[in-house]
Amino acid sequence: MYDYLRGVVAIKRNDSITVDVRDIGHRVHCRSSEIEQMVIGEEYTFYTSFQMNESGIRLYGFLDEVGLEVFEHLITVTGIGPKNAMTILSGCSVSDIVQAVQMQDTDFLVKIPGIGKKTAGRIILELDQKLDQYGSTTIDEVVHVPSKEDHIVIDALMNLGFARRDIEGVLETVEPDMGIEEVIKYCLQQLAKEI
Prior knowledge:
The chain is of the alpha+beta class. The chain has ten helices and five strands, in the order βββαββααααααααα. The protein has helices at 32-37, 65-74, 82-91, 94-102, 106-109, 117-127, 139-142, 148-159, 164-171, 180-194, and strands at residues 4-12, 16-21, 24-29, 43-53, 56-62.
């Protein structure tokens, strides 16, 4: 239904937020660790997964594509639904889950709320090769949560026709002490080289 939503956070709850997209409020269920980082009144982009079952319709959102992809892998595991997957992802980082699966570390997985020994075994068995694409040594960089300043830069450059993925790649090379105008100028120079 939706690949992503871009809007202003209007309301924060323990496990969900309301995102105002052109005066329409969308309830989006998010990881608690991401909700804590959000600021009411600020604009964010949420990569979303639309889920419908007997308990209703829910929209799940993540501030990065890797979080969304791991969520969608988790809900393919027998016995894990969207709510359980979100509880799992709220209980530890994405890189921790990936590393636990790659190392077949059931002891770590059973410490996460919502995971028992059988479920931990199924996660390792069913996701073993699916999560190989997320190298545990680099995933912390991949799931970097864009700051308020990053969002300003991303939106400005996307309005000029550049692809979000390319912009985010260049942002990873920006010096931390640069101002927004300097960052935009730097990104334009780098992105122009790739054209």
